[in-house]
């Protein structure tokens, strides 16, 4: 059982390294960074306590929101999905990404206190 | 029989008011004094002389006054002529010289263009000086003025003026104004009826209404209740602010006591309305509003009923007049002590108003204590009681003892001194006073069915009242009632009380409620427990560390900025974007949402335009690169 899992994972990693485009890997690295930041924030909250709660929430939501927006960007600039996003060029996807981030950070800064 | 029934129905039907305020003799004297002030000018002469004449008083030094009038007269002023004419008419042998110009001046004042006051003054002056005047012209001028000046005082002056005119003139319209004015009176609580302009206006209204009604011999449209309410309003004020106010009250009082139609009757008891054996006569003052006794009236007690038993004592008993006071020997009917409701009727003149009065009369008596027997009774009834009789007001010679096996008992009777009838006064108390400690305990003595009062003192039962303090107590009997002339406080005997368990006399703890209470400390909101700074600093560093990881990963992936073109839109875009990030920081530290949105709109639109340009250029480049690579691939394939 575990053997097959390990083999699947190693196969997945090999495929990933070889067949994914570089710009997607850049976005994936960014995604990984966001996830780590969010996880560390959550760990702090678990260990030390929820004071101040609003700051924790805004930081965590910021991570979650950024993650979601980056995932959207990744989907949209993936050339393999070009068929589904005919009207949205990668540049347009990036512009949307930036705009959504502006709105997200406006709200986050408002809430961070 | 039929007449009696008629009277009965009238009595029952008219629930009339009786005056609550009236002038007493001292008030009338004060009114006279107010009007007798020394003269300052013609106006004050007018008010004083004419006012006092209404009260039936004539100025002593008529000649002096006449000289004063003549010297202060201004023959070119209608007002001055008015005061002089009215005052001189009252004084005997005082004649004002009248010139043709004077007459013309006064006649000219009678027109629609003069005020109601001017018309009143000129007409009164003409009338008092005996000069002829055209009544019909006056009437039309007055009617015109009434419609122009719709205020209360103007109409009152019109009424006053009309009463000086010839009886042949058509005064009907002006007479109707009385009713209209009466409708403008304010009813206060059903007790007072007055104009909002005040007592003076109300009083002038009353005097002018009756003057005009008498002049045309037509009953004024005022109901009896209204007349009484007017009496209450006018005579409730016992000191007057000005000479004119005092004059108006005097005029009203004179009008109400002497007119052809309605004369209010004031019935008041002389002193307290109480009779007793020493004072058997019930005396009533029956007067008009000027405190003059109505000697021609017949005063009758229609019925006198006892308040407690509702039994009638008197019926149709007449009062007799003696020295201006109506009196009745009520004690002659041998009433029992208590309160009686009298219904008094004043008849003899059809003009009388409020001539049925209800009066509460008290019959007092003297009380005597009979058969005061003091005894000591054994609790187990083995030894017979030793009774000693005490006569009021002496004290029992021996003192009595009450302890655990004997009680102290007291019986007595309270009777009316003259008739011997048993009485049950409101207050019959037995007071025991400890001379040493000052403690006193009061008990109520109750009468039994035969009206014999009994009091028994049992030390076992009354332990708590006495706080079990043994000792010698002085025993007092207290008898009192509103209808007793001689309340009694009698030190009957001394009683020695012995209680079983003696408690130390408890000093009465005065609960001091006025000492300061403990201070309340305000508890400020405790700040939340914060983690130590070390921990939060450590975690800040930890949270920022993935950024390093990101940079490393990107470097490893080969992400670079080699495609960075230095076109203006690119630079502008990056500057704008950096500015947005900076704005976010400033928003966190300084700004509020509105300011931020304002700046964001400016920076954002710039960044958007620049970014749009930049991305479009990039897109063009990308599409060109794709096309060229496709072309190269196509060529290599061929």
UniProtKB/TrEMBL annotation, chain A:
Pfam families reported for this sequence: DAD (PF02109)
Taxonomy, superkingdom: Eukaryota
A GO cellular component entry from the record: oligosaccharyltransferase complex
InterPro entries, A to Z: DAD/Ost2 (IPR003038)
Location(s) in or outside the cell: Endoplasmic reticulum membrane
Membrane-related topology note: Multi-pass membrane protein
Pathway as given in its UniProt record: Protein modification; protein glycosylation
Keywords assigned: Endoplasmic reticulum, Membrane, Transmembrane, Transmembrane helix
Residue ranges crossing the lipid bilayer per the database entry: 30-49, 55-73, 93-112
Principal subcellular localization: endoplasmic reticulum
GO terms (BP aspect): protein N-linked glycosylation
Function of the molecule: Subunit of the oligosaccharyl transferase (OST) complex that catalyzes the initial transfer of a defined glycan (Glc(3)Man(9)GlcNAc(2) in eukaryotes) from the lipid carrier dolichol-pyrophosphate to an asparagine residue within an Asn-X-Ser/Thr consensus motif in nascent polypeptide chains, the first step in protein N-glycosylation. N-glycosylation occurs cotranslationally and the complex associates with the Sec61 complex at the channel-forming translocon complex that mediates protein translocation across the endoplasmic reticulum (ER). All subunits are required for a maximal enzyme activity.
Family in the record: Belongs to the DAD/OST2 family.
Record note on quaternary structure: Component of the oligosaccharyltransferase (OST) complex.
This protein's name: Dolichyl-diphosphooligosaccharide--protein glycosyltransferase subunit DAD1
UniProtKB/TrEMBL annotation, chain B:
Pathway(s) it belongs to: Protein modification; protein glycosylation
Cell compartments where the protein resides: Endoplasmic reticulum membrane
Membrane topology listed for this record: Multi-pass membrane protein
Every Ribophorin II third domain range: 371-497
Organism listed in the record: Triplophysa rosa
Keywords: Endoplasmic reticulum, Membrane, Signal, Transmembrane, Transmembrane helix
Cited Pfam families: Ribophorin_II (PF05817), Ribophorin_II_2nd (PF23861), Ribophorin_II_3rd (PF23860), Ribophorin_II_C (PF25147)
This protein's GO CC annotations: oligosaccharyltransferase complex
Subunit-structure text: Component of the oligosaccharyltransferase (OST) complex. OST exists in two different complex forms which contain common core subunits RPN1, RPN2, OST48, OST4, DAD1 and TMEM258, either STT3A or STT3B as catalytic subunits, and form-specific accessory subunits. STT3A complex assembly occurs through the formation of 3 subcomplexes. Subcomplex 1 contains RPN1 and TMEM258, subcomplex 2 contains the STT3A-specific subunits STT3A, DC2/OSTC, and KCP2 as well as the core subunit OST4, and subcomplex 3 contains RPN2, DAD1, and OST48.
Protein name: Dolichyl-diphosphooligosaccharide--protein glycosyltransferase subunit 2
Its job: Subunit of the oligosaccharyl transferase (OST) complex that catalyzes the initial transfer of a defined glycan (Glc(3)Man(9)GlcNAc(2) in eukaryotes) from the lipid carrier dolichol-pyrophosphate to an asparagine residue within an Asn-X-Ser/Thr consensus motif in nascent polypeptide chains, the first step in protein N-glycosylation. N-glycosylation occurs cotranslationally and the complex associates with the Sec61 complex at the channel-forming translocon complex that mediates protein translocation across the endoplasmic reticulum (ER). All subunits are required for a maximal enzyme activity.
Domain Ribophorin II C-terminal: 524-622
PANTHER family: DOLICHYL-DIPHOSPHOOLIGOSACCHARIDE--PROTEIN GLYCOSYLTRANSFERASE SUBUNIT 2 (PTHR12640:SF0), RIBOPHORIN II (PTHR12640)
Alphabetical GO biological process terms: protein N-linked glycosylation
